[in-house]
């Protein structure tokens, strides 16, 4: 039986509409417009594309967007001073520093200088700790998007066996924490895991966040499992550049119960969750009602 395709593009559009509706209500009831500041240092072409997309989506949701583009040679002191000003600015509810930063800048120091309440990427050490201890945190956007899609598709996740392949700080680890928070039995696999195929075959929920094109194949998947493919890999196929995930779509879709495609799966959810986090941060900062269904 062919797997159901989980349409991340359509789901992200629903999340964005829900954010926009909440923003409109906020403006009407309290006169407050949420604001997101995005900081880009240098001219990495991929980062410029992401920053443009984030700014456009922020405006489309009815929020204010503040873009700070700094030259590649910006000093750490100048960058930290800008973050200090954004931390103090009540019009700014979310601050995102686009990664990677140029090598002379200490990313950990920069991220940990952001006010945790405005850390809409959820990378600040305080938010990592809050998530790890089951407290209210700002949650990293990509894993939050995956969780929303899983809840939407499966309902309660309690008691399910979940396997997350990848243990990065931005995807794998927070994804595992979120699944644990929803009472899954969680295994985290990585490059040193023995017999990865056998580990993956135990999963009712399989999340691939590896960065290796089409590494997860159908024979590694339990029949009926829900497969979330976080990977974004550019490869050449038949002389053309194509985008593929970490999951081999054809062989996996023949076995799984449901699967996210690449493109059009997890990717669109990441920006939608950034918007969701910004409106959540604004609500918390101003003592207003938090949007429903947009947080972990
Ligand atoms: P990282 O490179 O930081 O982490 C990759 C993880 O995969 C590591 O934990 C690594 O293990 C593990 N790994 C590598 N090779 C193997 C293997 N052969 N078997 C099992 N595990 C392995 O990547 P990210 O987490 O940042 O990103 C993962 C993927 O998700 C990438 O394709 C990235 O482009 C994509 N991505 C997509 C986003 C979206 O919006 N859709 C957002 C962020 C990322 P070890 O720790 O042992 O080295």
Record the SSE blueprint:
Layout: E1 4-5, H1 8-30, E2 35-41, H2 45-60, E3 64-70, H3 76-88, E4 94-97, H4 107-111, H5 125-132, H6 141-154, E5 161-165, H7 172-181, E6 185-189, H8 196-201, E7 205-208, E8 226-229, E9 233-237, E10 240-244, H9 249-253, E11 258-259, H10 266-285
Parallel strand pairs: 1-11, 2-3, 2-4, 5-6, 5-7, 7-8, 8-11
Antiparallel strand pairs: 9-10
Helix pairs in contact: 1-10, 2-10, 6-7, 6-10
The chain binds NADPH dihydro-nicotinamide-adenine-dinucleotide phosphate (NDP).
Question: Can you describe what's shown?
Answer:
Helices cover 41% and strands 17% of the residues. The protein is of the alpha/beta class and 296 residues long. Strand 9 and strand 10 (240-244) form a beta hairpin. Helix 6 (141-154) runs parallel beside helix 7 and helix 6 packs across helix 10 (266-285). The model has no long low-confidence stretch (mean pLDDT 97). The protein binds NADPH dihydro-nicotinamide-adenine-dinucleotide phosphate.
Shape, please? globular
Helix fraction bin: 40-55%
Structural class: alpha/beta
Low-confidence stretches: none
Architecture per CATH nomenclature, i.e. the level-2 architecture of the largest domain: 3-Layer(aba) Sandwich
């Amino acid at each position: 039986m062919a797997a159901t395709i989980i349409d991340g593009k359509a789901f992200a559009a629903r999340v964005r509409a829900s954010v926009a509706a909440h923003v409109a209500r906020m403006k009407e009831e309290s006169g407050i417009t949420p604001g997101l500041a995005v900081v880009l240092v240098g001219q990495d072409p991929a980062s410029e594309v992401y920053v443009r997309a984030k700014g456009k989506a922020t405006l489309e949701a009815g929020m204010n967007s503040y873009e700070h583009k700094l030259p590649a040679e910006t000093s750490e002191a100048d960058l930290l001073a800008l973050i200090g000003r954004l931390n103090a600015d009540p019009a700014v509810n979310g601050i995102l520093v686009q990664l990677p930063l140029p090598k002379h800048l200490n990313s950990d120091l920069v991220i940990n200088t952001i006010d945790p309440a405005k850390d809409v990427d959820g990378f600040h050490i305080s938010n990592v700790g809050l998530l790890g201890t089951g407290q209210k945190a700002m949650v990293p956007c990509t894993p939050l998007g995956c969780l929303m899609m899983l809840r939407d598709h499966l309902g309660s996740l309690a008691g399910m066996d979940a396997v997350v392949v990848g243990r990065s700080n931005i995807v794998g680890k927070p994804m595992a924490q979120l699944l644990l928070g929803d009472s899954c039995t969680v295994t985290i696999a990585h490059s040193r895991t023995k017999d990865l195929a056998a580990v993956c075959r135990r999963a009712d929920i399989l999340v691939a966040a590896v960065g290796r094109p089409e590494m997860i194949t159908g024979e590694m998947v339990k029949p009926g499992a829900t497969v979330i493919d976080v990977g974004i890999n550019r490869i050449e196929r038949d002389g053309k550049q194509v985008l593929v995930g970490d999951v081999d779509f054809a062989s996996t879709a023949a076995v799984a119960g449901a699967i996210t495609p690449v493109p059009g799966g997890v990717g669109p959810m990441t920006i939608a969750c950034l918007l969701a986090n910004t409106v959540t941060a604004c609500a918390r900062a101003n003592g207003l009602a938090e949007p429903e269904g947009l947080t972990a």
